[in-house]
Design brief:
The chain is of the alpha/beta class. Helices cover 54% and strands 11% of the residues. The protein starts with 8 loop residues before the first strand and ends with a helix. The structure holds fe (ii) ion. The site of fe (ii) ion has 5 residues, from helix 7 and helix 11.
């Protein structure tokens, strides 16, 4: 049984400028980012890299339509290294571009996963503290033709270098901070509960949970403390990424994709919708299973276990019912069916078996 791996080299620099100098970024390199990240921080470095701005190809999370537009724009261009600087959307897109070669339809990459081959060195600089995507081998794409998000998974999607730069986190808008760190916490918890968890992954999951919960306690009292905690949240997100990159995520992520894909809800916010209800479902099905160890861990950081976690999260971000995003009764059965049909990889990493009826019940409970 394989126990653990971390593929990318992990670096930390206080400023983007330090990173650009250390790796001599230049005209042969392609930076994929957003203009609002590029203009204040990257452009002043004057490294002369080629650029590709995600927002020029669509908004929200990565879809096949958006990525195909970018692949067409890059057709015929040569670059030695790809530098992804951004949140989950930019990173997921960069991973696909790094293996696309001359292909201009991402859907065909999904059909030929075993044939994927990386054609440029990939550097990932996360500017949110949630995805952990800088250390994982997966790219999530909204496949509009299928009506759901799906993960493209291949060893070829690993970055060569993950680069942590707290400068970006300290200036993150509060909503993006809250959603991305909640996602990181869910990665830590889901990987901890996964049947594929090992002693190695549990160390990273536990440390990530502890850093995030302690950081949240500070932020709940004083939002001004985010800048001081930025390094810890970035580290926690990276630890959680290492844990879930090995042990996987489970039902929370599985249920999030149908809902988030249809109503264009940001990934962390969409996951938050199902996080506590899924933990309660696990507890009801197997109160003495691994969820018990999770509760003991949570109790070492805050009062009340899952209940205490729910209260703390409520002080960080409001949780609205699915109907507030436009979801209806008809979505409940459709989402449950879609989740069972399209998300078996994730459902298989839940800590208790879960069937379509169970999933329908959780969606129904989250509707209003
Ligand atoms: Fe996630």
């Amino acid at each position: 049984m394989k126990l653990f791996q971390v593929v990318p080299e992990i670096h930390r620099f206080e400023k983007f400028r330090d990173f650009a100098e250390a790796f001599s970024l230049g005209a042969e390199d392609l930076i994929i980012t957003n203009r609002y990240i590029y203009e204040p921080v990257i452009s002043e470095c004057g490294c002369g890299c080629m650029t590709l701005f995600q927002e020029e190809y669509g908004s929200s999370e990565p879809s096949d339509v958006m990525i195909n537009g970018m692949l067409r724009a890059l057709s015929g261009k040569k670059f030695r290294r790809i530098i992804a600087v951004g949140g989950g959307t930019v990173i997921d897109i960069a991973k696909v571009i790094a293996v696309a070669g001359e292909e201009t339809d991402v859907n065909r990459l999904f059909e030929n996963v075993s044939g994927l081959k990386r054609n440029a060195e990939l550097f990932i600089v996360p500017t949110t503290c949630g995805t952990g995507s800088e250390v994982t081998d997966i790219s999530i794409v909204n496949r509009t033709a299928l009506g759901t998000k799906q993960g493209l998974v291949s060893r070829e999607l690993f970055a060569s270098h993950a680069v942590l730069i707290p400068e970006f986190i300290a200036t993150l808008p509060y909503k993006a901070f809250a959603a991305s760190t909640t996602d990181a916490l869910i990665h830590a918890v889901e990987s901890y509960l996964s049947p594929l968890a090992t002693g190695y992954t549990e160390m990273f999951s536990e440390k990530a949970m502890s850093l995030i919960i302690r950081g949240y306690k500070r932020v709940a009292e004083d939002k001004g403390s985010i800048a001081e905690c930025a390094g810890d949240f970035l580290t926690a997100s990276n630890y959680a990424g290492i844990a879930f990159g090995n042990a996987g995520c489970g039902t929370v992520h599985a249920m999030s994709y149908a809902f988030g894909g249809k109503y264009h809800v940001a990934h962390g916010e969409s996951n938050y919708q199902f996080f506590i209800p899924v933990l309660r479902f696990y507890k009801s099905k197997s109160p003495d299973g691994k969820i018990k160890r999770l509760e003991e861990l949570l109790c070492s950081e805050l009062d009340g276990g899952i209940k205490g976690l729910e209260e703390l999260l409520g002080r960080i971000m409001d949780r609205k019912p699915m109907s507030a995003y436009g979801a209806t009764e008809a979505d409940v059965a459709d989402f449950a069916e879609s989740t069972v049909k399209n998300q078996q990889r994730l459902l298989g990493r839940s800590c208790v078996p879960i069937c379509e009826e169970d999933i329908r019940g959780i969606y129904a409970a989250c509707l209003r």
